[in-house]
Amino acid sequence: YYAPNGPVNLLSVSKLLDNGIKPVLKNNNFLLKKASFQAFVATDNKDWHTLLGHPSDSYLNQLLKEGKISGKLLSSKKCEICQQTKIQQRPHNNNLPKSPSPFHRLHVNTLEITPITHQGYCYVLVIVDDFSRFNRICLLKKKGEAEG
After folding, report:
1. Distance, CA of 12 to CA of 35 (rounded, Å)
2. Using alpha carbons only, how large is the chain's radius of gyration in Å?
3. How many independent structural domains does the chain possess?
4. Mean pLDDT on 120-127
5. Which Gene3D superfamilies does the UniProt entry name for this protein (predicted)?
6. pLDDT: which is higher, 109 or 75
């Protein structure tokens, strides 16, 4: 998940475990244990939502029902970061009118192919006529061959 304006750092439980730190929930406090190191984090429901990496409502409410965290039912709809990550891009506007005749508008694209063919071709030039949808594909050894 991407939260560019997040007000706090996220805590990765898997990374803690990878580094030999054991997270323990005790008396409504989050305890991090490693040898003689201990840290306590007092939290409320909003903090739990953030500390656990912005989980879904159903997951957080399951933790509440199991008594692993305390408080009232929560909703990610109140979390600005969760709302930002759910924003979707609008579809592209494809109101471009169809070409009136062949060769009026051509769509041209150059693509790199891997692995290189046995003959040494490493690019493909794709040409599509907008009116007829007729297309041609040309293999190229150098990208500069597409010019002209």
Report:
1. 19
2. 28
3. 2
4. 92
5. Ribonuclease H-like superfamily/Ribonuclease H
6. 109
- CA 76 → CA 9, 30, 49, 63, distances in Å? 17, 21, 8, 15
pLDDT confidence bin for 67, thresholds 50/70/90: confident
CA distance 63 to 84: 24
Same-domain pairing of 70 and 110: no
* Amino acid in the structure at residue 8: V
In this prediction, residues 46-75 reach a mean pLDDT of 77
**18-42 burial by CB neighbour count: b if 16+ within 10 A, else e?**
eeeeeeeeeeeebeeeeeeeeeeee
- CA dihedral in degrees (108, 111, 117, 119; nearest 10)? 40
Q: What is the pLDDT of residues 33-59, one digit of tens each?
A: 774 545 445 456 677 777 777 888 888
Task: Give the count of beta carbons closer than 10 Å to the beta carbon of residue 50.
Answer: 20
Same domain, residue pair 68 and 119: no
0.70 surpassed by pTM: no
The answer to whether the beta carbons of residues 139 and 124 sit under 8 Å apart is yes
